[in-house]
Write a structure and sequence with these properties.
The chain has eleven helices and eleven strands. The protein is globular. It has 372 residues and is an alpha/beta fold.
Length: 372
């Protein structure tokens, strides 16, 4: 049995026993912050700094900010000192503490290209291009420092492109929430640093695939870029980066808890209607289907893509989707399909949209025509 097959079997056996998303509470109560690398694993190395030091500083500042802004939230860290922590153990820390969100902090790097820069936020998924794969390979190389990597990861080789094929089978039940948080983080980072927006991406990160909750990996900037390295090394830069992620967290927490309450209210109302309303006679005239006004009240849509330029005749371009619309945010055009007054109906349509190849789609909420 070759290494890749062993790894795939271990991966799939874990997925079978992953806690169900329904077990999560209606509130964000616990967050685990992961400072990438540490100890004998320096991570990427710049001219004047090491990734492990920057990630630790930002992670601790982020935790302090969250505690200050959201005192009801418990904050745990995978490390608070310069020590080496195995990738699998980082996920276990989050799972043991029943975290509602996992945030892994990193710095990017590319050899012989000091002008390459920008921030990007990743979620667990199948890499879509060579650049995403390169980032995943570099971050996953931390297992080379682990003495029992063969046992923990079933012979997974972080430098083998073929080994990443197994990740294409992962369909995380936390993908939608991870995408929502990742988008918030990315928007805040770009708004704060004014650096190049490298977007929200997907790739196969070992530190994310065993976390049983929404999870993201944040690449703050390029340590191989002297300007960005200096910014990430500075106290001011670290404070601003931590504050940006904290703002994203607070928005995500508010949205998540509001959605949870609304869904419970909606379900309770539906149950009441089911149990209390008498069945109407078959001769009763069927009421006309109400027209949903997208600019009045609360509606839900399925966001399926983001573009830097507006698309001409979007309904014609995306003809396999219905009620295609878009809204602008941070200079980007974000396209949606469908318009529903019920989140349950939007979730049902989300499944239809993803079945048509829009893997990164997720449900968004609007109130009086404004994205919430």
């Amino acid at each position: 049995m070759n290494g890749r097959l062993i790894f795939f079997i271990i991966l799939m056996s874990f997925l079978v026993f992953t806690p169900n998303a329904e077990a999560q509470t209606t509130k964000i109560q616990t967050v685990v912050i992961d400072a990438g690398h540490g100890g004998k694993d320096a991570g990427a190395v710049g001219k004047k700094s090491k990734e492990k030091d920057i990630t630790l500083a930002v992670a601790k500042k982020l935790g302090a900010d969250i505690k200050k802004q959201c005192p009801d939230v418990k904050v745990y860290y995978t490390r608070t000192t310069d020590v080496f922590v195995e990738l699998m153990e980082r996920a276990k820390i989050a799972n043991r503490n029943n975290a509602d969100l996992f945030i892994s902090i990193h710095c990017n790097s590319v050899a012989n290209s000091p002008k390459t820069g920008g921030a990007e936020t990743f979620i667990m998924g199948d890499h879509r291009n060579s650049a995403n794969l390169a980032v995943a390979k570099r971050e996953n190389a931390s297992i080379l420092y682990e003495s029992n990597a063969e046992e923990n990861y079933g012979g997974f080789d972080p430098n083998s492109t073929e080994a990443y094929i197994a990740f294409s089978f992962i369909q995380s039940e936390f993908k939608q929430r991870s995408l929502e948080f990742a988008e918030l983080v990315q928007n805040e980072l770009i708004g704060t640093t004014k650096c190049k927006d490298r977007g929200v991406q997907q790739a196969g990160f070992l530190v994310l695939y065993k976390t049983a909750m929404p999870s993201v990996l944040v690449e703050l900037g390029f340590i191989s870029n002297p300007t960005e390295e200096a910014y990430m090394m500075s106290a001011e830069g670290q404070n601003k980066l931590a504050a940006a992620i904290c703002r994203a967290f607070c928005t995500y927490k508010t949205n998540y808890e509001k959605d949870s309450v609304e869904m419970q209210t909606e379900e309770a109302a539906n149950n009441t209607e089911t149990t209390e309303k008498p069945k109407e006679p078959e001769t009763t005239k069927e009421p006309e289907k109400p027209v949903v006004d997208k600019n009045v009240g609360v509606v839900y849509k399925v966001q399926f893509t983001t573009r830097s330029r507006a698309v001409d005749n979007p309904q014609e371009v995306y003809k396999n989707l219905r009620e295609v619309d878009y809204y602008e945010h941070n200079g980007m055009f974000k396209y949606t399909a469908g318009c529903f007054t019920s989140k349950a109906d939007a979730d049902a349509y989300l499944r239809e949209v993803t079945s048509k190849g829009y893997d990164g789609a997720f449900v968004v909420k609007f109130e009086d025509g404004v994205r919430k």
